[in-house]
């Protein structure tokens, strides 16, 4: 594992750093540090304008091939960009679902017409996407989706319900996993549809979280429509396409996420020094242990990136989500213990939470979204360790 960057890569780092310093000024100076889990409501129009500024300057979709509008940046340069982006305290991106999930899916599995229609607006930051996977009875057990789609002339008609749909209230489009063959069950008979959100037949209901914010939503499809050609892959082959999309979630941006974790850690450590909690040997030991685990997380991510660069990801990929989500949940508990009794009081009425309180409350969801810990353990047991398949509901 070679963790060194070349001179050319370091020159690229300087270019990224300089551009961010020059552009996070003026109207975008106030965007620094905004957004993120539990805070996606913050200055969304300003962050959308920033997304478009990134697109104009060619800083979106770095890993996309040149023939599809991206710069075709190496994995090392993608890592560098995400690192410097977080170090600059730039606002959390609003176009990550389009750039990181549906875009690569269309590049690999979409038709030329789909690529021509949908990729350029993602590159420019002009169209936002959300993911229509989970349902009330089909979360971790995704193959149990009940949303249905039927052909009516040249259009698909969609009926059903999705839940935990991040940023659905801001999205222009949704990629929806729906059952198009009513005679099938489980993985068969599913199709992957691209559905416009701003139309009759689509109702979005925000879900108020324990943080008091509403970045997740319920989405109800009642006769919603999309053109017949807006199916990715073959009709009935939606499970394969959906799994391909999920594979793109574990990319270079994870290192940026971990630098965000490091920034959170530094803030909590500073609070511990200010309020004297650092003097408690038990809390000090927990802080040290948390820092060590964060370093392990980063090194493992770099090792994963190295293996991906060779085209052969190792078994460590299976552990990454389980590791970081468990670490972050425990870190949220540590943050509250550092605050002590002050952590029981809101910053102000009616429910103004502090930084540490938001970290604690939202981190409770980390072990559920993007693959619950229970399912992740099944995947590790069955696919990495070769243990017998679980017979329980939701088995991978």
TrEMBL record:
The keyword Mitochondrion does not apply. InterPro entries: Acyl-CoA_Oxase/DH_mid-dom, Acyl-CoA_Oxase/DH_mid-dom_sf, AcylCo_DH-like_C, AcylCo_DH/oxidase_C, AcylCoA_DH/ox_N, AcylCoA_DH/ox_N_sf, AcylCoA_DH/oxidase_NM_dom_sf, Mycobact_Acyl-CoA_DH. Residues 130-222 form the Acyl-CoA oxidase/dehydrogenase middle domain. GO terms for cellular component: plasma membrane. Residues 236-384 form the Acyl-CoA dehydrogenase/oxidase C-terminal domain. It comes from the Bacteria. The keyword Flavoprotein applies. Keywords: FAD, Flavoprotein, Oxidoreductase. GO terms for molecular function: flavin adenine dinucleotide binding; oxidoreductase activity, acting on the CH-CH group of donors. Transmembrane segments: none annotated. It holds the Pfam family Acyl-CoA_dh_M. Gene3D superfamilies: Acyl-CoA dehydrogenase/oxidase, N-terminal domain, Butyryl-CoA Dehydrogenase, subunit A, domain 2, Butyryl-CoA Dehydrogenase, subunit A, domain 3. Its cofactor is FAD. Residues 6-126 form the Acyl-CoA dehydrogenase/oxidase N-terminal domain. Belongs to the acyl-CoA dehydrogenase family. This is Acyl-CoA dehydrogenase. It comes from Streptomyces rapamycinicus (strain ATCC 29253 / DSM 41530 / NRRL 5491 / AYB-994) (Streptomyces hygroscopicus (strain ATCC 29253)).
